[in-house]
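input
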Amino acid sequence: MAVALLVRPAPHGKYRIIDGHRRFLILKELANERGEELLLVPCRIFHNVTEADVDAIRFEVQDNVEAWDPATREAFFTRYQRLAGLNSIAEAKGELGDRSTSRDEAHEWSSLPEAIRRLCDDANLARTYRQAIGRIVRNSQRSGYAPAEVVALIKKIMDEIQRGVITQAR
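output
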């Protein structure tokens, strides 16, 4: 079998399958047909995962094989957003690398003030920082800050990123 089952520890020294249920059942059935006992099955073990982690793993793995229907996908992102404490479904999609967000993200990025886009481009910021800065800019604009105040705030944040004061974006 080329693809390992994805499992997590369960009580009493057993494991619970995260992904690969059908492969496991087929292997079991083949072993029974041959009169053999199923002893070893290749597995990747995930320790200390929450249910949200399990859903995310399943989503990522299964999405690579076959896309979810739109209603199921949106329901998952809504749940993931809530469980992860994110501000929006777009954030959840971005965190999981949902391909459908790239167009929206490009539109959001192009709607930011040129001075801020230039600052981020010059600093060669990672995608997560760009997304966080985009959220800060939009929230600041909604709160009524003047464009110059927003640019000054972003300059300060960028300075702290470059100095290592800020080490990750959420």
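quick obs: The mean pLDDT is 75.
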